[in-house]
Amino acid sequence: MLQKDTALSDTALENDTSASGEDGTRRDFLYVTTAAFGVVAAGAAVWPLVDQMNPDASALAMASTEVDISAIESGQSVTVKWRGKPVFIRNRTDAEVEAAKAVPMDELKDPQTDVERAVEGRENLLIMVGICTHLGCVPLGDAGDFGGWFCPCHGSHYDTAGRIRRGPAPLNLVIPPYEFMSETSLRIG
């Protein structure tokens, strides 16, 4: 009888092992499926939060701006807005261009020639981001000791080419990317 009971328990053990093997496979499938649904649900919940960080259509529209420069008289400056920043466009007089070209490089904190700051053949037109390179203030035009721009907040003086000449600002006014579309049109950005 003992042998018969052993044979029966071996058969029961085999049946039990095969059943637990099937359960293990089913259980693994359920774990993987549940995890996959959880990942998809988390992605669906997080996507709106990530997507809202993209710029809206109005910001993308300001990525570049076109300006009619035909009305800017010699010696006159205009300010336009590009990417939320002021951009100074100055139609310099011949005397201002010559004075800017005559400045020795050793007198400049951030040495840059006038030719590097303006387009050849259009040296009279100077296009610069109107933000002081010290702490981000907006300088006043036709002011300061060098006839260019003056930042009254901390006393930075820029010349007629937008180069820093005196004060705490470390760099010249930034030249944005721009191109002339025609004789009377300019695209910034």
Topology:
Layout: H1 2-51, H2 57-61, E1 65-68, E2 77-82, E3 85-91, H3 94-101, H4 114-117, E4 125-129, E5 140-141, E6 147-151, E7 156-159, E8 164-166, E9 178-180, E10 185-188
Antiparallel strand pairs: 1-10, 2-3, 3-4, 5-6, 6-7, 7-8, 9-10
Question: Could you explain how this protein is built, in words?
Answer:
By secondary structure, this protein is α+β, with helices and mostly antiparallel strands. It has two domains: 1-54; 59-188, Rieske Iron-sulfur Protein (3-layer Sandwich). 35% of the residues lie in helices and 23% in strands. It contains four helices and ten strands, in the order H-H-E-E-E-H-H-E-E-E-E-E-E-E. It has helices at 2-51, 57-61, 94-101, 114-117; strands spanning 65-68, 77-82, 85-91, 125-129, 140-141, 147-151, 156-159, 164-166, 178-180, 185-188. The strands form three sheets. It has a four-stranded antiparallel beta sheet with strand order 5-6-7-8, with no helix packed on it. A three-stranded antiparallel beta sheet has the order 1-10-9, with no helix packed on it. The chain has a three-stranded antiparallel beta sheet with strand order 2-3-4, with no helix packed on it. Strand 5 and strand 6 (147-151) form a beta hairpin. The longest helix has 50 residues, at 2-51. The protein is elongated and about 90 Å long. The mean pLDDT is 83.
How would you summarize what this structure contains?
This protein has helices at 2-51, 57-61, 94-101, 114-117, and strands spanning 65-68, 77-82, 85-91, 125-129, 140-141, 147-151, 156-159, 164-166, 178-180, 185-188. By secondary structure, the protein is of the alpha+beta class. The protein has a 4-stranded antiparallel sheet with strand order 5-6-7-8, with no helix packed on it. Strands 1-10-9 form a 3-stranded antiparallel sheet, with no helix packed on it. The chain has a 3-stranded antiparallel sheet with strand order 2-3-4, with no helix packed on it.
